[in-house]
Design goal:
alpha/beta, 13 strands
């Protein structure tokens, strides 16, 4: 089966195997059913309604009950995730949306054919670091950039701890180096038009992923990938192609932000006040670094903006939990009142 199966997963699956279930990795999840790869190939499995476990997502390892004469395979359990790439939902709900599970490497694709938006790159890096996977920033379309090495140096300043690679699907530049640093299950993350699907096709060695044209005016492309799916790589590992994301909201990404802005977090230890907000406080080491040019003002502004967004997302989750507890308390109170009224009538 492969698809990332290893001895640790084999051990975690032991109780399910004893129960007569079979291991499978979710390739594509839809409402009420999913496609999963097993030793017998790719199967469509039912996701039973009212199941206690969270719905599966692409990359999950799951336990399926085998097909019978009266019913096809049924998803019975999802194994605990090692990593999860999660963004805030586009709706008004407070929960997060899992984009991919059990990912080892997150490729953050940045196009060199259009002006770089470092704030967006920082946002994607925060999601990647928070997931528990290793991010790699891949600069695509180097053949359309006057000075790709200068661009790489510029992006490296906003991606501490991550490799930054220059590539071109047209000339083949950097693709061998990229293939060498990728590991395990790889997810491609980036906006439409960044060249994710074209890059994926080069790694696969075939035109398997749909790639569309890009508007010259703004470098944006059509969402040619409509869903997430897993594809085995010829040299080992698994590629997870994702749709281009119009919005990438942060969801409980404090650790990811700390890693993304590691130089600011490091300097913050030297501030006079332990709760320094790096706004106007005296003795702020971060502001001093901004004044000397050690840290760009844009970088600090982006840090503050993403911190506020993450705090707001956390407050929405807290508010939902408080609302749930309040609703439960009201239900209990109403039940008690009804009980007392009933007792009074019986007297």
């Amino acid at each position: 089966m492969d698809y990332g199966w290893d001895e640790a997963w084999n051990h975690a699956f032991s109780p399910s195997r004893e129960a007569g279930l079979i291991p499978a990795r979710i390739v594509r999840a839809e409402h009420g059913s999913c496609e999963a790869v097993t030793d017998a190939g790719i199967l469509r499995a039912e996701i039973p309604g009212g199941a206690e476990q969270a719905p599966p997502t692409t990359g999950d390892w799951a336990a399926l009950s085998p097909a019978t004469t009266s019913r096809g395979p049924v998803l019975r359990a999802v194994l605990e995730r090692r990593t999860a790439l999660v963004r805030s939902t586009a709706s008004r709900t407070s929960g997060g949306q899992v984009l991919a599970a059990n990912v080892d490497t997150v490729v953050v694709a940045v196009s060199l054919a259009v002006p770089r938006k470092h704030g967006r790159t920082e946002r994607m890096l925060a999601l990647a670091w928070e997931s528990g996977a290793q991010p790699v920033v891949v600069l695509t379309k180097a053949d359309r950039c006057a000075d790709p090495q200068q661009a790489a140096a510029e992006v490296s300043e906003v991606a501490p701890g991550a490799d930054v690679l220059v590539t071109s699907a047209v000339t083949g530049e950097g693709l061998d180096t990229l293939a060498a640093v990728l590991n395990g299950t790889i997810v491609l993350l980036g906006p439409s038009g960044a060249g994710k699907s074209t890059l994926g096709n080069r790694l696969l060695g075939e035109e398997r992923l749909a790639a569309g044209a890009v508007r010259e005016a703004d470098g944006k492309g059509r969402h040619t990938t409509a869903w997430r799916e897993l594809v085995p790589l010829p040299g080992g590992g698994v590629l997870l192609d994702t749709p281009g994301l119009r919005a990438i909201g942060l969801h409980d990404a404090q650790t990811g932000l700390e890693q993304t802005f590691a130089e600011i977090e490091l300097l913050a230890r030297e501030c006079r006040f332990t709760d320094c907000g790096h706004g106007s406080e005296p003795g702020c080491a971060v502001l001093a670094a901004v004044e000397t040019g050690e840290i760009p003002r844009r970088r600090l502004d982006s840090y503050h903006r993403l911190l506020r967004e993450n705090a707001y997302a956390a407050s929405r989750t807290d508010a939902r939990l408080r609302a749930g507890r309040e609703a439960t308390r009201k239900d209990i109170t109403q039940h008690l009142r009804a009980t007392y009224r009933f007792r009074d009538r019986q007297r």
